[in-house]
Automatic annotation (TrEMBL):
InterPro entries: DUF3298, PdaC/RsiV-like_sf. Residues 168-247 form the DUF3298 domain. It comes from Mucilaginibacter ginsenosidivorax. This is DUF3298 and DUF4163 domain-containing protein. Keywords: Signal. Residues 1-17 form the signal peptide.
Amino acid sequence: MKTLSKLCFILVGFAFASCQWSVKTKEDKVVFKDTLRYSTDGLITFPVTLPGQPANHKDTVVKASYVVFDGQPRLNDSIMQKLSGIFTNGNADIKYLHNTSKFLLAYADYLKKHPGWIVSAYAKVLMQDSSITTLEVSGYTYQGGAHGSSGTYFINWNTKANKSITLNDLFIDGYADKLKAVAERIFRKDEKLSDTASLARDYFFKDNKFALNDNFSVTPIGLKFIYNQYEIKPYAAGITELFIPYSQIKTLLRPNSVVGKFIK
């Protein structure tokens, strides 16, 4: 698994680094005044001839589309790290990013043993204003078996501070238990559970106690959290969304945070 993880990262890194791949360039996105300007490299594909196929037969086994921000190296690095982490189960390692020779050798060997492997990913902008840029980063991998796996993650970027936005940046000190209580109340309502119903049978929470993760996106009306496949439910249940309106947590939010302007 460790070798495969390294291989996956090399694969994604090569997608971003190699000019030999097929890249369909799109025009710059039109964004609002005072927001960061970005472009998209469109769809990047890596066609190969799989074992047993004619030499002129190509299968696309890699797809990656992502945005690139003008003059924002830290944000661009965060996007690439998040994309790469999808294919390495969260263990992204930047040193493999441009090692194309290792990639070619490892990938060729892997295809001989595991034909049919597919990976795809994208990073897109969900929201922009003068102080916040929110992106969705999502990917799918198929490495054999009954089904593939997918994941959706977010980057919330403070454009003025040039850094990622964390929950600690948004909430006052000592917020964790109170935020979790609000989140659990919403979760139980969404799942049609009573206040005292056990979480042991249908969910994967540690010690059967509700927990809020840090995979969230900032929106103008609240915070959207996502639990990915297998995180708290079986694969067949897919992802679970949990939306917390600002109106229910406004006493916990820092008044000078980047979401303060959304609070009424």
